Amino acid sequence: MDYETLQNHYTRFLSSRVADRKLRAFWSGALPAHVTPHPDPIELAAGMPNEGLFPIESLHVNVVDEPFAHEQYAVRARQLHRDGGGRGEEFDSRAFVQDRLERGSLVDVWRYDPDRPAALSGAVAYQYAESRGQPQLLEFCRRIVQRINPPAYDQWDVTLAHGSSDSLFKVFETFCDAGVTVLAEEFTFTPTVSNIVAAGGTVVPVKVNVTQDAESQGIDVEFLADLLDNWASSRYAHLSKPRLLYTIPTGQNPTGTTLSQAKRRQIYDLANKHDFLIVEDDPYGYLKLPAFDRADPHHNAYASDELSVDDYCDKVLSKSFITIDTVGRVLRLETFSKLFLPGVRISFIVANKFLIDRIVDFADVSVRAPNGIAQAVLVNVIHHWGTKYHDDLQGWLHWVMKVASQYTHRRNVLFQALYSTDAYKKGLFTLTEPSAGMFLTLKPSFEKSDKFPLSERERALDVFNYKLLEEGVKVVLGTKMIVCRELSLDRSFFLRITFAYAADDLQLQEAASRISRAVERLFDEY
Ligand SMILES: Cc1ncc(COP(=O)(O)O)c(C=O)c1O
C-alpha cells in the first residue's frame, strides 16, 4: 500500500471543507531548474524572532519518580500509601522540594543543549515550529505505537494535537459534513457528540452491554452487524450509511467497559465490509486494572512487582484496533492528560499518512503546534526518567505503570468499601468492576421494589442524585451521557462513579458509606 492508494481510497471520506483548508504559504515555492540556491542563505524571510530575544534562559522542573511522593511530607497522606504518610503535620512544600533538589530530581531545559540531542532545547521549543510537533516528541510517540500497538501496515504516522478534545475536534472537522452519519456507543463522552453535530454530522447510537462479563461487555456486535446489514430497512434508512464509528474501547467513559479482542476483530471486519473508519479514543487504555479479588481485596499486581514492563506491554494492555488494521481505516487517539498532566494539553493521533496529513493541514491553518513550553517539559521529563532506565520509553512506561498501580489501589479500596456497605448487603445496588480506566457503574436495584416501575425510574434516579448530594457525594448520571433517549433511556439508570479524584483511602471509604445511606434513603423514602 503506497500513499497514492491511500489518497485514492480515503479522499471520499473527507469533509467538503478539507480541500479549502490548505495553508497559503507565502514564504516558499518551487524554483525553476536553472536556479541553484546558495547552500547557506541568510534568513531575511521568516517573521520569527531571533531566539536571543526570548526572555527565558532556562526552565528547571522538579519531578518526582513516584505519584504521591510529596505526601510523605503531607498531612493529607493518611492511608493512601500504606507504607507512608505522616499525620497531623502541614505539608512542608519547601522542605520537600529542597530535599528533592538535593537528590537530583531537577529536569533542566536550556536555551541551547548541544550535548543532549534527545533533549529539546529552549531555542527550538519556544520558536515557531512544525504544526505536527517537535521531532523528538513525534519520534517518542512513534516508538510508543511501535512497541505497544504496531499497526498492521507500514504507511502510518502520528501528529500531535492539543489534548484528545482537540484531536476529536480536528478528526470530526476532517470527516463530517451535513449528511454524514457517525456511529457511537449509546452512552458516550458527550462533547464528541457536540463536535459531530457542529460539523453537520448525525450520531447514531450503537447498543452496548454494561455487564461484568469480559467477553460480552461493550458494543453489542450483533446489534451493530444487524444495523449495518439492514440499514435500508432500519429506523435510520433516511440517513446515509455510516462513514465513521467513534468508540472508547478500553475503560469506556461512562460505562467502564473494555471491548474484548474478539469483538475488536469482529467490529473491524464490519468496518471493512461496510467501509467505515474507526475512531478509537483511548485516554484510559494504559490504566489497566488487574481483576478485583474479593478474597484479597488489596492485591495489586503492580505494587507487588509481579509485572515487568514487557508483561505490561504484551500481556496486560488491550491491543488497539490499529494492530489489526491492514488498510489504514483506524484513527487512534492517545493523550498525555491522564498519564502526565491534563494541563500539558498534548495528545497524538495515529493513522495512515494521508489522513494524518489532512489533520496537519487543519492545524496549519488553525492552532498550529501544541505549546512549545509544554512540549519541552514533556520531552525533557520523559528523557530524565529515561536516564534511570534503559531508555526513554522504559522510563516512561515505568512511570505509567506507577500511575496504573495507583488507580488499581483506589479501585480496590472503593470496591471493598462498597461491597461492605449495608445497602450492598441488602441487594439495593449492583456494581460493574472495570478492568481499565477510572470509571465504574453503580445501578440501584429498582426492580426490587414496586415503587419503581420503569416509567418511574428516570425521576427516581434524579431523586437518588439529590439524596447523594444531601449525603455529600457527587456523581454523574447515566441519563446524562445518552446519545439518543428513545433508544437508551431504559438502560441508562446507573451512576458513573470515578475513583480518580478523591483525596485518599479515607475519602473513598467515606464516599461508600454516604452512597449506602443515600441508597437506603431512596428505597425507604421514595
Ligand atoms: C473519552 C474521552 N475522550 C477525550 C477526553 C479528553 O481528553 P484530553 O484531556 O486529552 O483533551 C476525555 C477526558 O475526560 C475522555 O474521557
Low-pLDDT residue spans: 75-88
Task: State the strand order across the main sheet.
Answer: 3-11-10-9-8-4-5
Number of helices: 16
Corresponding CATH superfamily of one domain: Aspartate Aminotransferase, domain 1
What share of residues is helical? 25-40%
The assigned structural class equals alpha/beta
Question: What's the architecture of one domain, going by CATH?
Answer: Alpha-Beta Complex
What is the count of β-strands? Answer: 15
Attached small molecules: pyridoxal-5'-phosphate
- Major sheet size, sense and barrel closure: 7 strands, mixed
Please give the CATH class of one domain.
Alpha Beta
CA radius of gyration: 25 Å
Strand content: 5-15%
End-to-end Cα distance: 62 Å
Shape: globular
Q: In CATH terms, what is the fold-level topology of one domain?
A: Aspartate Aminotransferase, domain 1
**Average pLDDT level:** 94
Report on this model:
The structure is a single chain. The protein is of the alpha/beta class and 526 residues long. Among the domains are: 64-104, no CATH class; 405-525, Aspartate Aminotransferase, domain 1. It is 36% helix and 13% strand. The protein has 16 helices and 15 strands. The chain has helices spanning 3-10, 93-102, 122-125, 135-148, 164-175, 190-198, 221-229, 261-274, 309-316, 353-364, 372-386, 392-419, 422-425, 457-471, 485-488, 505-525, and strands at residues 58-62, 106-110, 156-161, 181-185, 202-206, 208-209, 218-219, 244-247, 277-281, 330-335, 347-352, 429-432, 439-444, 476-477, 495-498. A 7-stranded mixed β-sheet has the order 3-11-10-9-8-4-5, sandwiched between helices. α5 (164-175) runs parallel beside α6 (190-198), α11 (372-386) crosses α12 (392-419) and α14 crosses α16. The radius of gyration is 25 Å and the shape is globular. The N and C termini lie far apart (62 Å). It binds pyridoxal-5'-phosphate (PLP). Keywords: Aminotransferase, Pyridoxal phosphate, Transferase.
